[in-house]
Amino acid sequence: MSEGIGKARSGMVRLTVAGETVSVPSTGQRATNLSDADLVRRIKSGEQKAFGILIERYQGGLLRLVGRFAENREDAEDVVQETFIAAYRQMARFRGEASLATWLSRIAIYRALKASRRHKRSVNANYEHDRANDHQPDAAEFVTVREAVARLPKKLRVPVVLRFWEDLSGREIAEVLDWKQSTVWTRLYRGLDHVRRELQVDEGR
Description:
Blueprint: E1 4-8, E2 12-17, E3 20-25, H1 36-44, H2 48-67, H3 73-90, H4 100-119, H5 128-131, H6 139-150, H7 154-164, H8 170-177, H9 181-204
Antiparallel strand pairs: 1-2, 2-3
């Protein structure tokens, strides 16, 4: 596979998407004492090492988030690489109106949904790797719910996944998707109603 995040020589993190490569210094640590605001300021000033910190700080969370919409883990990893490339290009336009995490999540979700349309196939609510980490009292029932969610229209599926898989609040979902909170709650209700009715049909078969 030509795309991915890899460690290059001389302590560099290499991002490669569609044949384009961006290399940034690896910190070798998470640098948790550096705030996101300081991180953005350093990246904008041209400090590439700061972007390496951003990757190490957000890569795991974005991979989990994108995995909710990707067909498999490999597709999820590709979308995360695209997200970091886009963030690298667009950082100068980041104004801090939303948090850095929200901004990155917005880019990632947009690209994940775009990738699912590109592949022209149904999107799983999660990929197989993550299922091993689910601790549900009835795994078979949970898989059925997840499959029902995966069949929802995009505008209903996304807020349901963010609310119940990512545990985001209505306000946080509104920020990530750039929606009104009233829109979030309306679509959550409609999405859950779709799932409920579909599960009732399955039980009646």
